[in-house]
Amino acid sequence: MPRMDFRPTREQAALRDAVQRFLTDDSAIGARAFLEDGWINGWDPAFSKRVAAQNWIGLTWPKRYGGQERSYLDRLIVTEEMLLAGAPVAAHWFGDRQIGPALLAHGTDQLKNELLPRIVAAEVSFCAGMSEPGAGSDLAALSTRAAIDGDDFVISGQKTWTSFAEHADYCYLVARSDPDAKPHQGISEILVPMSSPGITVRTIRDMVGETHFGEVFFDEVRVPRTHLIGEINRGFYQIMQQLDFERSGIERLISNYPLWRDLKAYATRTGLTANKALRNRIAEIEIAYWAGRGMIYKVAGILSSGRVPNYEAAVAKTFCTSLEQKIAELVTEILGPASLIRGGPRSIFDGRAARNMLYAPAYTIQGGTNNILRNIIATRGLGLPAR
Ligand SMILES: Cc1cc2nc3c(=O)[nH]c(=O)nc-3n(C[C@H](O)[C@H](O)[C@H](O)COP(=O)(O)OP(=O)(O)OC[C@H]3O[C@@H](n4cnc5c(N)ncnc54)[C@H](O)[C@@H]3O)c2cc1C
User: Fold this and answer.
1) pTM score > 0.70 for this model?
2) Is residue 5 part of a domain?
């Protein structure tokens, strides 16, 4: 029987060292460390450019587009170290994680040549326009229209919860291109420049007070048909595969790891771990963290072998994001009212625990809710009947 060897290769160990060195260098993140949720709230294009200068964006992509042709495990090492350090990686996150792989899978040569090298150089950014007021889990219910008029699509409708809408150069839009087809069969993916006339963005303030997402209104926005990604009316099926990329990263496990690491150090320093019940709860979470990390590495291994992780990504995301919520709850419970205080001698972690507690419901919603993922695990994973 082949032996399972979890040791990193020499190149992987060197890569992890290099990322750690980069991150401890003051000029890399310095005072701008975002700590928790840096992949979605830490928008810092200058930091992304410094990451690009290290050749760490588009790591798995072909060299002719500026990539390094390295493995998904290598990419995981880079993203893991970035998030553990709380780096503000949001400005290149969607391009690197989702849009680049989607273009590689379905984009025309023109779009690939034009955009992939710019993603690698952190010169271009993206938002993903899928959800609408009447279509979230049931994406096929979307009503934003992409009518064909000569050489253009004419787009009208509304998206919501669009992360980075305010900053992004392009929206990766999913819209209805054939209103007469069955719901799943009349949808296309189109790359829309956010500077196009007719687009209005209205930011949404979340419970934490942050404004990383927003509503996007499209009023007869004209986009050349050359911006179509993949096949016309096949967008729904293409996007289902992209979601497997979106769901399976380490960001689903360690969005709030900096807080967890600080809590463990605090509990040890202040003697809280003398309380056996508390010690056990901390240990339970630590055990689950290692189990979740194993799942994420397994999914990266599946991607490296050329397979698309489907229900495996759903298993990993469901387990790991639930754990992130448990971390937020336990840290807040342990700190009590002090978790709320920002600054001053009575503050512990500068209000980060309370902030994370308020943010945590997002973990099991964004990228597909846990209910939807359980459906995927049951049907596609276990072969149970859909109804
Ligand atoms: C922080 C954050 C960032 C986001 N960023 C983006 C983004 O960049 N782009 C984008 O397009 N969207 C984004 N979203 C939106 C997100 O994808 C949707 O919120 C999510 O898919 C759920 O859709 P919904 O909110 O419409 O809820 P609904 O689909 O209305 O679901 C409501 C409830 O019903 C349950 N439910 C629905 N259908 C079923 C079913 N078939 N079986 C069992 N239970 C079901 C759900 O689990 C949920 O509990 C973001 C969301 C968050 C929180």
Assistant:
1) yes
2) no
